[in-house]
Write a structure and sequence with these properties.
Blueprint (H helix, E strand, L loop, with lengths): L17 H24 L6 H14 L11 H25 L7 H31 L5 E6 L3 H12 L5 E7 L15 E3 L4 H8 L3 E4 L6 H11 L5 E4 L12 E5 L2 E5 L8 H35 L5 E7 L5 E7 L23 H8 L7 H7 L3 E3 L6 H7 L15 E3 L14 H16 L3 H17 L5
Parallel strand pairs: 1-2, 1-4, 2-3, 4-5, 10-11
Antiparallel strand pairs: 6-7, 8-9
Amino acid sequence: MFEEPTARKRFLSAPPSVASAVAALMEPAVAGLSLAWAHSFYRVPFEGPSTALLALLVVLLFPGVNRFGQTGVGVVIDTVLSWVGVLAVLALLGYATDSLKQFDQHMLLVWAVTTPVIQLLLTVVGTSWMRHQASLPSARRPAVIIGANRGGLRVAQMLRARRSFGHDLLGFFDDRAPDRTELPPDGKLLGRLADLPAYIDAHGVADVFITLPLTSQPRILNLMESLQNTTASLHFVPDVFGVNIIQGRLADMGGVPVVGLIVTPFTGVNRLIKRASDIVLSAFILLLISPILAGVALGVKLSSPGPVIFRQRRTGLDGEVIEVYKFRSMVTQDNGPVVQQATRDDPRITRFGAFIRRTSLDELPQFINVLQGRMSIVGPRPHAVAHNEQYRRIVKAYMARHKVKPGITGWAQVNGLRGETDTVDKMARRVEYDLEYLRNWSLGLDLLIIARTAKLMFFDRSAY
């Protein structure tokens, strides 16, 4: 489902395609229509509770994930896990509001099983149709790459992977001798840049990918001028593969094209979806766990003298300092310019504190931070201000994790990076997972992380 943290899953996002628009509507539409079909099949009236369920489905599933073009077991796992996450949230809400009994249980079971099956079938049909259209002779797009360099190799890999969707890579153009290029063993050097216009006309080249370094600006300008009288589409691929790109995209700002390299994923509709899910889930979770909150608060008070709630200054969205709430688990509170992380068998941790840290019960008051808008349920874990000042100087792209609100749990935590980060390497690995989360965010990923966190609360022993 996910690539390695260091992989550059995307470079610059293209304008929304027809496939993306269809996918955005397909998931909520399929869930809603299959719910209506299940009501009809079991002859159950579609009334108030069902209407509320339909509204929740739209909130949780819109916009849908574009899986057209994906094949193999990965798309099945991604679809099923995403749907299981939605069902888990709906079950939690139904239990909290005591509304599950208002539905026919057999009907819900049939609906829960048929919905992902229909989604997968439509994904397969859509992918097959795209490939069929791309296989037509009129749809083939011969392509060449300008620059047998690192960027050119990346583009070549992309084009070969997309061959079934219409692209045919013919080869490379470069002014350097073959022994000075980074031409792959199966690559073909077609000629020098001066030979390109004639080659385009002779072979019907549809796409030209320019991967020359930015230091070659005069050559790039001359090349583009010489190609303006051809019918080929020109694509400039800047050499930014060494940059830790997050949500890279091309935007139009008052008529000026701007390339965003490190951008928050939570803008526009995504921001509304993230905030709405945080409010709904945190409110219901707080209502559900209120007896647990009272019990833990009593345990903290009886275990050692001091306040029940520990407030620590931590770094939030865009580097803003926020106050994060936790149940106190230590006899002392470090909140100054130097903060010592808790270690295994740390004498400062009380016996009851060790229990609530191991089960993550000490984090529960942070759902109040989520309602306040300071935090999110899922996101990079907030570090103490003192730790931020320490690690921002030695961990690459450390501060980029603050492009979103910090979370109660995160992608790093469910991948084994809970507890103490006593080495720079551990912190660097945590940051890599945080950045991977930002690159690949979706509501389905949030739900998956929440589900994994619930499991870790009872079976993980790495936190202390």
